[in-house]
Structure formats: C-alpha cells, structure tokens
C-alpha cells in the first residue's frame, strides 16, 4: 500500500525566512497531493494541493512542487509569519479519485518573531 | 456554523465499555470519512461513505469498530469493548467528491480509555 514519509518533524525559522517541508510517496499511481495545516487544538485545513499533471502550484506565499519521477513533493512557505506556526501534514491519494488520503507524520513549524 | 460537527468532543470511558461518536457533515457533501489521529501522527484513514454506502474500511479497523450512515446524512462510529489502544482523536471529514479533493474536517472527538 501507499506510504508517505515527511521531513523534518520539527522546523524552526526566523520570521521572514522561508520554510521547506518535504514528502515522499511510494505508490506511483497516486495523483493528488494535498497539504493540510493544523493549528494547536484545531481541525486540519487544506492550504494547497497539486495534481500529478502539474509540476508546481503557487498561492501567495505558499507553493508546492511535485517530482513524479522521484515521487516526492514539497511545500514552500516564503516570508514566514508567526501565524504560520502550526503542524503541516502532506498526504497522497491512495486510490485515484477516492480522496482516501495517506497522511505523513507531520511537521511542526515554529516561526520565531 | 455550517461546517462539519462532531459530538461528543471528549469522551472518557473505562476499558471494555462501548462508545459512539456522531458526525454531521456539511449538508451537500455526499462523501464522509472517518480518520483516527494519535499524538504526533497524521490522521489515519478508517473508513468512508459515498452517500449511505460504506465503500471501504481500513484493514486496521478491527471488528470492534462499526460505522453507519443510515440516510446518507449524519454518521456514527461505534467502538465496542474499548481498549486503551483505542485512545485517540477521531476525526470526521466530508467532501463533495467528484473533481474536488478537499476534505473538510470536524474538530474531532477525543477518546480516552482508562
């Protein structure tokens, strides 16, 4: 079955710096890769997603890149702000179209003011 | 709030007791998912419904777990004969299905088994 690995598990950056979180997946049939942000004690919320027919997607300060050949994808946050502090989860769609995700183990991002 | 709602938010029970959680999805969403999340881990898929049909259950889901979505609206997740290893946050999510992949999560039901 699908397996998603996520690194690093914790990440501290200075406010204004960039943060990069990386994930790898095992199932080459996966074709949808969302990123969720979970603030402390709150529900996970989608922040950006990418499909396998696209190599990069950007939304303001957030971007995601996908390398299908290497089976890895990354989240990039530029100009980080304290409110970016949260746990970020990557995920892969295990079976095309069901959105039955396999999540990574999460990255706790701390933005230092 | 028209988002996904779950109750109870917290449940403390003794080992061996049965517990039931309820999830009310966003009204127009035909897909409903149950995930389990333990501390320091990502959500783990348990099962999902398309309308009232339960389409898949994780192999991790033992026979003590059962989920229903009787009229394609709200869903219940029952855990029988709870064990300490069942302690976790149980997250419900719903989606429109089709071309959109976004899952809208509820705030979860935290289960503590003593």
Structure description:
- The complex is a heterodimer of chains A (113) and B (114).
- Chain A has 113 residues and is mainly beta.
- Chain A is 0% helix and 56% strand.
- In chain A, the strands form two sheets. In chain A, strands 2, 4, 5, 9, 10 and 11 form a six-stranded mixed beta sheet that branches. Chain A has a five-stranded antiparallel beta sheet with strand order 1-3-8-7-6, with no helix packed on it.
- In chain A, strand 9 (86-93) and strand 10 (101-103) form a beta hairpin.
- The model of chain A has no long low-confidence stretch (mean pLDDT 93).
- Chain B has 114 residues and is mainly beta.
- The mean pLDDT of chain B is 92.
- Chains A and B meet through strand 5, strand 9 and strand 10 of A and strand 5 of B.
Give a brief outline of the structure.
Chain A has 113 residues and is mostly beta strands. Chain A contains no helices and 11 strands.
The biggest chain-chain interface is: A-B, 23 and 22 residues
Roughly what percent helix of chain A?
under 10%
Approximate strand percentage of chain A: over 45%
Largest sheet of chain B: 7 strands, mixed
Supply the number of helical segments of chain B: 0
Beta content of chain B comes to: over 45%
**Which residues of chain B sit in consecutive blocks of at least 5 with pLDDT less than 50?**
none
Average pLDDT figure of chain B: 92
Say what oligomer this is. Answer: heterodimer
Number of strands of chain A: 11
Give the tally of β-strands of chain B. Answer: 11
Give helix and strand order of chain B, one letter per element, not per position: EEEEEEEEEEE
Assign an overall shape of chain A. Answer: globular
Weakly predicted, low-confidence segments of chain A: none
> Helix content range of the residues of chain B, please?
under 10%
What is the structural class of chain B? Answer: mainly beta
